[in-house]
Amino acid sequence: MRPDGKPEGLRQSMSWLHTYAGLLLGWVLFAMFLTGTLSYVRDEITAWMKPPAQHSFADAQTADRAVAALRKLAPDAEQWTVNLPTVRQPAVEVSWRAQGAPQGRRGRETAMLDAGTGEVLRVPETRGADFFYRFHFEFYGMSVYSGRILAGIAAFFMLVAIISGVITHKKIFTEFFTFRPRKGQRSWLDAHNALAVLGLPFHFILTFTGLLLLMFMLLPWGLDGAYDGQRMQFYQERRVLLEPRLERPADAPPPVAGVLALDDILRDAGRQWGGRGIDSFMIRHPGKADSTVELRPATGDSMTEYPARRLYYAADGTPMDAPSEPALAWSTNVYRTMINVHIGRFAGPALRWIFFLSGIAGTLMVATGLVLWVVKRLPERRKTGVTPFSHRLVEVLNVGAIGGLAVAIAGYFWLNHLLPAALRDRALWEIRGFFGLWLLCALHPLLRTHRQAWVEQLSAAAVLLFLLPALNALTGGLPLWRSLARGQWSIAGFELSAMAVAVLLAFAVRKVRGGADAAVLAGAPRKALAERRPRAGEPGEMGVQQ
């Protein structure tokens, strides 16, 4: 109800909904947006986090070297898999499954090879950017089911915030072209609106498709009804489609054990895919008469292609007949398209960078919205001279969630290069370090004024990110100037991006430290958590020196 007793209009109601839908899970959404954005370049990040692999350069003999290495590493394995180098991943990753090993990841052993020599690389244990990818929709330290349910709830709140935000701001597209600096709340609202409109289609589509990806978990009743409660039968049928039964042509000569016409197979597959390139190949029963080779193409540019069409050969190069995939319902094709749109499987380098930048815009949109909640309430706090506990809590959470996550991510990269290679559970210690840093950053604002907390955490993140190229060069990685000279863009691109983000963070530190807009992030002193007056020389209610 309005103060005059009349009911609120639609826009006023949507304003309330937009504010609290974004605030209640805003800190979770910020972490999801940022880690999801990093997932678009997870191959590049993972390559950087494996310094020995950065010196790997592929040539025409790379595939043969990988098979020769597997003959030494796992001569009796029942299956070999070779992931070939790409512009995003310079080294060769091989894996094998020993006879009788359990299915899934538990029964698989892996190694990384130098693409130019075939030698096994001593790569330190790390989860790389796969940690960010999984954190994006499963979080950490909870069951997969619980994490995905929480991600689905957060995505639903995000969708509500997007729709209600469009309804609330009737001049949102007009105000996209308006930015008024040094105007406190007005400036932050302009920035929030501009970031929202700039990536509005991206934000809406990614949020909606994210919910679609989780729909069988969030709304399982249709699946339960179709399969009489036997939900796993649906997933088993999908696996059967992905693993077809192969048949050797009747007129083909009998197979011979020990023969592997790999060059002919790769050449024919490349011709069938029109020069698209080969992502990986799998050899089942290597060295035996019934050995087969399965090839997967490199990422294409089709949003509807999932999974990608595979080719199958006998080890002697004879194409194998695989039953064609049955015709799928239009709804299944739509669902597959939505998966590709969300994950960006079809995106080439240019489009992937657009996705990445749009994700950064979405991350900043959430961050500015959280800060704006505090800024809008500063005038009332000026009048009363008191900071309510809820306001101070939001201030602390903002610093810990936004600045703290930036510090934790930068620290995760440093731990990756500094922890001893022989450390037991090394990958786990990287993750523990990530959360340890984040926890310290969450507690840090309780001990500092609001402005000091922002300045110190953003400064720490900026320094750590800017020095990543030097860290990499000093710990066995490829120096930046060499990665640029040799066209190793997966490494150079990551380091240049980290430095660019560091410059932006330094600019934010400069704005927080001084100027008319400093009060926006300065907030109020710790009255809600510790009743005392600011000391001389300490920022006061609006961050102004007393």
From TrEMBL:
The chain crosses the membrane at residues 20-41, 149-173, 194-219, 353-375, 396-415, 427-447, 459-481, 487-509. It comes from Achromobacter aloeverae. The keyword Flavoprotein does not apply. Keywords: Membrane, Transmembrane, Transmembrane helix. The keyword NAD does not apply. The lineage of its organism: Bacteria, Pseudomonadati, Pseudomonadota, Betaproteobacteria, Burkholderiales. It holds the Pfam family PepSY_TM. This is PepSY domain-containing protein.
